[in-house]
Amino acid sequence: MPSDIILIGPQGVGKSTIGELLAQQLDLPQCSMDEHRWNYYNEIGYDDAIAKQKRETEGAWGIIRYWKPFEVYAVERLLSEHTNCVIDFGAGHSVYDDPLLFQRVKRALAPYPNVVLLMPSPDLEESLDILNTRNHKLPEDIRRTNEHFVRYPSNCTLAKFTVYTKAKTPAETCHEVLQVVNVS
Predict the structure, then answer these.
(1) pLDDT bucket at 2, cuts 50 / 70 / 90
(2) What InterPro entries does this protein map onto (predicted)?
(3) I need a labelling partner for 25 at 20 to 30 A (CA). Which of 48, 81, 97, 101 fits?
(4) Pairing state of beta strands 161-164 and 5-8?
């Protein structure tokens, strides 16, 4: 069984920050989906012109829908290439409306015992308030998509553990993650 730690959750929850701390604590490499995604997307025909058109004509939801097949492929590729590390997904890489795409990600994550959902609070409204404050510089339509990432059940279904970050320092959150996961 892979001993990797995989962090999932909405935008601005701290996946990359906590991932970096965990990697340092465990003396493992950190693997961030945001650093690899574009190479994976390009492998299967990602088109910047189409993405730009979707963003301009359909807003944030248009681009997010366009990304979904690329995101699931990126999850599969990242997990097949990187082992014995701390992985942090992009916010959308664990949320899928399409049942077939969701099943692919669920299947890819099934062997991993340490899939950790980071959320600000068990209260979804409070989580959204916290995330909206943290993400205040993002365009409004992008912040609204984060509400979907918080409310949609994909993250809860995929996660083996949930750790709440409200009122905790990143170091305290890192410590809590280390207490719930099984890393040998």
Answers:
(1) low
(2) P-loop_NTPase, Shikimate/glucono_kinase
(3) 81
(4) unpaired
